[in-house]
Design brief:
This protein is an alpha/beta fold. 40% of the residues lie in helices and 20% in strands. It has 8 helices and 10 strands. The chain has helices at residues 11-18, 22-30, 44-55, 70-77, 79-84, 115-121, 133-145, 172-190; strands spanning 8-9, 36-37, 41-43, 61-66, 87-94, 103-104, 107-111, 126-129, 150-153, 166-169. α1 (11-18) packs across α2 and α6 crosses α7. The longest helix has 19 residues, at 172-190. The protein starts with 7 loop residues before the first strand and ends in a 13-residue tail after the last helix. The protein binds nicotinamide-adenine-dinucleotide. Nicotinamide-adenine-dinucleotide (NAD) binds at residues 66-72, 93-96, 99, 112, 130-133, 135, 139, 154-156, 172.
Length: 203
């Protein structure tokens, strides 16, 4: 809208664009100060400036990717998206000699035996762990040794770390399973006569 030189936008227009209710849009935006004018809407430039202020990361956090395979490389190549979140990946690690020393998406891949030393020296706060399941715990142990603050683990195993380390698990397949289960129950709810059927009803 800003690029199109549109000066004003109504909450209705924003709501349609975002697939939300206009009351939600007005209520949420009001959390950021008095931005709109009744009967007129929001000034696009002013709204944009304020939203950029609110959404911009307050500080840069240094991160690392451990395991530069398919997923690790995809994350390294999406550096722009990570930067929007305030995360700058400065270094990556792998055990594969073919990958050590290479540069992927501007990030150098180092030998994973150096994790603790480099994490400590570079003040790396966040690690994205994309190694095979059996390597995840030993990798998290090395990261914790180096003083990492937070780990996002993509391997489908439960990893533990000292209390000082925030650990979040990202199991895409578990998410998919839960989505498919919800879809299946919604589909069965919509079957004709489903709401009158009991589990014991004859087929
Ligand atoms: P991949 O086999 O392509 O890559 C794994 C990388 O980790 C390799 O480069 C390997 O050399 C490296 N590695 C192995 N042991 C290591 C260690 N101790 N230290 C550092 N590096 C090590 O695997 P992938 O497809 O990228 O998946 C990575 C992890 O993410 C797996 O646990 C997988 O289950 C999970 N995952 C992958 C996807 C996906 O879409 N690819 C989706 C969800 C979850």
């Amino acid at each position: 809208m800003n690029k199109r030189d549109q000066e004003v936008v109504s909450s209705d227009e924003l709501a349609n664009f975002l697939c939300l209710g206009d009351t939600t849009v007005r209520r949420d935006l009001s959390a950021f100060g008095r931005l709109g004018t009744r009967g007129l809407g929001y000034r696009v430039g002013q709204l944009r400036t304020r939203l950029l202020e609110v959404a911009s990361p307050k500080e840069i956090i240094f991160g690392t990717v451990v395991g530069v395979g398919r997923l690790g490389q995809a994350l390294l190549r999406s550096d722009g998206m990570l930067r929007i979140e305030g995360l700058v990946i400065r270094v990556a690690f792998d055990i594969d000699v073919q990958k050590i020393g290479s540069v992927i998406g501007n990030v150098r891949v180092l030998d994973a035996s150096r994790i603790a030393e480099v994490v400590k020296r570079e003040r790396t706060a966040v690690a994205l762990v994309t190694v095979p399941p059996e390597a995840a715990q030993p990798v998290v142990d090395r990261l914790a040794e180096g003083g990492i603050s937070a780990v996002l683990n993509f391997a489908p195993v439960h990893v533990t770390a000292p209390e000082s380390v925030l650990v979040s698990n990202m199991d895409i397949f578990l998410e998919l399973e839960s989505l498919l289960l919800s879809l299946a129950s919604r589909t069965s709810d919509k079957r004709p006569g489903a709401d009158t059927e009991t589990p014991d009803s004859p087929a």
